[in-house]
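Re: that backbone. Tokens:
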């Protein structure tokens, strides 16, 4: 088996493990994203949505997740431009997940429309952080 094949399998296992963290209804929400016309406007709307939720520790945690993700290169195993020198085990440890945030965001994912989709996206990021913490603790 080639090194590239091992690399692809390693990242595929990472993504599959993250998706297994998510309940089925969250996965369904992620498969049907809302239509947005302008990326910057959508990012603003996401930030406003998060600020409106009275979930203690959420916004600081999302900011920490954004900073964490910016420090490493999320690899798509099917991409032609993928950097095969970066493995899941190379990911720096994620920020600690605040108590109760997962459960609170999970409840928000049940909301209709854009707010539910935003919650599903946050849960996906949190799931990747959970899996990364298992990889980095090995």
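Recovered sequence:
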């Amino acid at each position: 088996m080639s090194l590239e094949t091992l690399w692809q399998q390693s990242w595929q296992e990472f993504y599959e493990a993250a998706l297994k963290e998510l309940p089925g209804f969250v996965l369904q929400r992620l498969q049907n994203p809302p239509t947005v016309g302008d990326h910057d406007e959508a990012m603003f709307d996401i930030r406003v949505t998060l600020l409106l939720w009275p979930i203690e520790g959420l916004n600081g945690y999302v900011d920490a997740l954004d900073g964490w993700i910016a420090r490493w290169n999320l690899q798509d195993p099917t991409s032609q431009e993928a950097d095969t020198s970066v493995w899941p085990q190379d990911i720096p440890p994620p920020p600690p997940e605040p108590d109760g945030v997962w459960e609170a965001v999970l409840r928000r994912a049940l909301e209709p429309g854009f707010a539910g989709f935003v919650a599903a996206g946050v849960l996906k990021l949190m799931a990747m952080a959970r899996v990364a913490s298992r990889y980095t603790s090995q």
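The chain has six helices and no strands. The CA atoms of residues 21 and 115 lie 20 Å apart.
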